[in-house]
Amino acid sequence: MKKVLCIVGCFCLAAVLFASVTVIPCTADGGPDPWAISSHSQPPQFSGDGKSLAWQAKIGAVMDLPSWAQILLLVLVIVLVLGMAAFLILRHARLRFRRLSEEITGREHATRALREFEEQFRTVVERARDGVCIIQDRLIKLANRRLAEMLGRTVEEITNTSFVHYIHPDELPVIIDRYERRMRGEDVPSLYETKLLHSKGHTVYVELSIGIAT
Questions:
Q1: Which one, of 133, 130, 123, lies nearest residue 162 by Cα?
Q2: How far apart are CA 189 and CA 208, in angstroms?
Q3: Reduced to 3 states, what is the DSSP secondary structure of residue 104?
Q4: Are 158 and 147 within 8 A, CB to CB?
Q5: Which of 92, 147, 173, 194 could form a disulfide with 131 if both were Cys (CB 3.0 to 4.6 A apart)?
Q6: First CA to last CA across the chain, in angstroms?
Q7: Tell me: the pLDDT tens digits for 127-159?
């Protein structure tokens, strides 16, 4: 947007310079008047190199035009500047809209891919013969039916509850210690035997295989 404004400013400056060349102050009696347009009866004398003389000759030709022609030319320059400014602004807005559309489309694809992965993961977990669960902040975020059956409960009952409720009291201190050390990045056993607590009070002997999902 800054580049667009700079270009528009340059065009406006060119229009002002053109107006300052063509609009010559003169009053009704020959004195200065900011609203009068002059027409030279004699071509002005220029000096300089070839390119400078060419541009000076063009400016002189414009200054020698009749007043109505100078006004018309000035109006055309202003219209051209405003048209170019509108074109650049619309072009910038279109490019920005396209970038935003691409970003939104990319996010939608990523969200769709993540949703498909979660559905596939749930399918694999549900079909597993072993009890599987995902724990986050000590809460069971995902569990399959097999694990719920081992605990004598339903998947709905154990979801979003703390895993410590299902560990046998004798094993609870060791399990919590290893969990906290694992979360700190320490090296702890990932495969070991322990005891869970069934909803009816009896002990369930299991072998835990634990890993950290990244």
A1: 133
A2: 10
A3: helix
A4: yes
A5: 147
A6: 40
A7: 788 899 889 899 998 899 999 999 999 999 999
